[in-house]
């Protein structure tokens, strides 16, 4: 059955897996002190045009979010996020498990509006009772957002300025960054992100790795004794080579960007198919996630031939569903979908 | 200077303080195992008409909230509260410090609407991704709310039913319960609360004690090894007599209710004064907190003669301020205020 | 029944209680911003000869330990303590509840030997795997210790030097500091402690207050946003006057030291009585806690007329028990004990 | 350079890696709901002869320990371990990060003596102040231990009985279980472990997987909502297939046990070589870790040709070092070592 369920339905991109096979029998030191991890970090710094950055490799997205946030926040601080932010909804309270509040603000298509942030920060510091409240200690955004939408360079710049005027870091969750960077509608580059954010991560799991996320600390605020903090959150891989080799492969010969480009191409074709069939969009995104509205009868029938995911109820007779493309989506998948999809 | 700043501006009610003085030199066991603590607990159970209840005495409100919530929630659960709930705004992230999320829902004048709760619970369990989300594990309400408003018996009954249909406890924060119970507009009694809530606390600090809150577990879900859990949160008083003697006094000869009645009487007179002077209400509550709108010039002048508290900006020229009565408010205070307040 | 059970069997010292009564009806601001709290802090700084110190008032000892330790440690650090340290044994895991390990080292009569500490620190930094271990981030000692013993000025100086050579703070738990400072065998003064420790607390609960401990930060490492951190651990008193007034009284007219002196005088007489009766000491301390060995038959008989506390089994027929004096111990209590105690 | 540094110097066992390659392009559901994970769990239950067990796949050892322990302990409880236990020394305080104390008891060659445990438990419940202490809520042991030693069936049975008499679970850390089960000196089988322990894990990372540990809950005490608890600790793999496929391979055709057998065979030959060369053992273990004493000059020379790990200083001129074998150790490695090692 063809699947548009998400961007982690397949294993690793063949070029990534191949490197794991080729290096498998080498004797390497553990805990990320192997040469592949080193090489991966160097390549990432170069791609970010940020030679002073500190790069760390972790296993998964929620893990990365909780480690970055809990090691950078002070005791009295919480992290600001859009109400739809992954850390606020779909991480089962991982941030709170580390003792910190997610300060959820209203969103616009999954994005945190700089004006909303500005008002919140202004009101907070003007409140006489603020010592009894959670201090804003970081701003979390995701690029692309959970709705596949993108911040513009202008918006990112504004958010960055606001954060820096309050002396708090801006953190960007790049679980799907490959697809954001390669979107046809973006004006934001990886070096832009490295310049404007204090810390961000480059997602591997959703972009062709078996697992792995690369955190990039670009600023001067960096957690000290990071390895120990990672260890005590149960996140230190004994065989650090597993993420090292994979990110070394992803950042060799432009692979990470190729993966993004391919998925975007597939997403554009997918959008065209939906338009041709007259299927209404709930949110037509510039990245690899597309949200369409199906009537419930239609949806049930479709489900027998295609995998996609339920997003939310639209009304009593309609449902919002999500279709996702990735490096593993093929032209053939799209052709099959086109044949299966009903004309409306 | 006369003060309506809050309901904890004075020390203890004289009858409470007197008991501390009378018992001061008695040799008593520590950690709440003294006879006064025992007697206080028995009197509270009687007042609640709930002989099977378990009563525990703690020191402060935030402390009580964090202990009750963190000992009753399971690992995967969070606590639902109105967005304006004390635990969500003014406890500096105390609940999150224990590892749990506050699931904030929209409010109506500080109250959690049963319909809003019902929809939230329905949507949650219908969501296929709910294993990646924080489970609702408790509902927190305050009576009176942070805006001085009150749940009706009907609303409390609905909330209670909703909680029980989902097998989660209903927890009522009664920091100002004395004023809620004695409001002229309430149809809710202390036994009603004991019957409808699984756990609640009877606030002492804001009702005539130097410190102290009495938690009442009415249901079958009770934290085991409570003393140890209290100890490890740094909340166990060596001289447990301090809260024991005070609650014994508060629940002797109807004192707790008298304290509530007096403050309500003072609040009603306060409301009349505001009406006579033509000062607009932001929220005219049935309890001991009143919210009025002052123009900023007026406010600054008033501040030199009366203490009250800033609530929030109303518009560029006006401010919402709060006036609070308590057991220590006197007729004389009101007369002085009447003379000071400008005619509008 | 006469009682030597502990030093918190009675309420407050009459001079302390009296001040609570005298100030009871004053309208004061909450959360420690009242003038009595300010005055208490100033007096404490003066007594410590440390005008640059930051003094904070809290409610209880375990609470103080967990707040000081958790706000001063970094994420990757734990706190070193003697195996018998209060935080390691009798605080129900309060430090661990804040996420940090107690690194327990062997003790000598309740004391941490500077040589033991030196070896531990040396070994730790020499260990190649130390990034996988909890870093020593603070040294906790108690003065007097849980066994009533005292560090000498020389020992304190050595511990202080060791800490500073590793850039970690030295923290002294002074729950019973009054009795340590007034011991006939000590060469350590309050200013010595303020000079050698980075942070310590002056215990009120066990020295004549109803509750209250005064934390003194003497060094440059101080938790920022302390009020917010205190609030989120549920430890901020709404009526901050409760501790403010009490410490103001304790540090007026030498009262704190008088309380200590009286208890020490009583303890010396107690020791004489035990010696005269031929009752063997398990540990004859220079402070207000004395540990003697009773045979079990003797102990059971004695228990019917005197309160004291079980310490530990000595052998199958004997038990170590503890007798404690305090400000509330009277000459009369001692005379009665003398009459009751059997001749051995 | 030949390496005996540890048992995770190489990638995956070729048969394991091969399965990852073969299944790489299949579209599979995420988060462990794929058929390979299911199959792996079934095979593990069969190997344990425990059809009622619940098996869960996680990524690493520290992660597994913290998840199992923190989800099974109650609020007031800690976990008992030998002082040398991995959770007490080399997990950077991961257990404490979850809020729980490790109750460290003296060890014998890395093992927890049932007699030591019995005395501890007896003393704890006899202590009148135990409500102020951390309750023992679980016993943690490792098999093999951190010193490569093994519990006998008799010892395991005694520990199990002691735990069950106190109604607390026995948890066995099997990071290197393959080597324990295949030791020539053990009388303990996998079904024995499943019968005697309430929960244990079968280590993959140190036995031929790239990563992965399989937790087996055998008893009636099982954490509910385990997925959510795993998610909120950042430990849920999006591509659950990664561990599923690997454990499916490890428990196919006896591979897990073959891996253990091979490493044991290599370890026995290694021991012979050391004996022949007259190199003294610090601890000659029955499993895959061997501890020998080298003089420091010898050690430095050897280091240039062989990888091994520093264990601890023996005296000023000697050092304890560790040699480890694994599935990737070859006869050739041993021959080379034999040639390199000096005759003593």
Automatic annotation (TrEMBL), chains A, B, C, D:
Gene Ontology molecular-function annotations: lyase activity
Keywords: Pyridoxal phosphate
Cofactor: pyridoxal 5'-phosphate
All copies of domain Aromatic amino acid beta-eliminating lyase/threonine aldolase, residue ranges: 22-236
Keyword Nucleotide-binding listed: no
InterPro entries: ArAA_b-elim_lyase/Thr_aldolase, PyrdxlP-dep_Trfase, PyrdxlP-dep_Trfase_major, PyrdxlP-dep_Trfase_small
BP GO annotations: amino acid metabolic process
Pfam families, alphabetized: Beta_elim_lyase
Family, per entry: Belongs to the threonine aldolase family.
Protein name per its UniProtKB record: Low specificity L-threonine aldolase
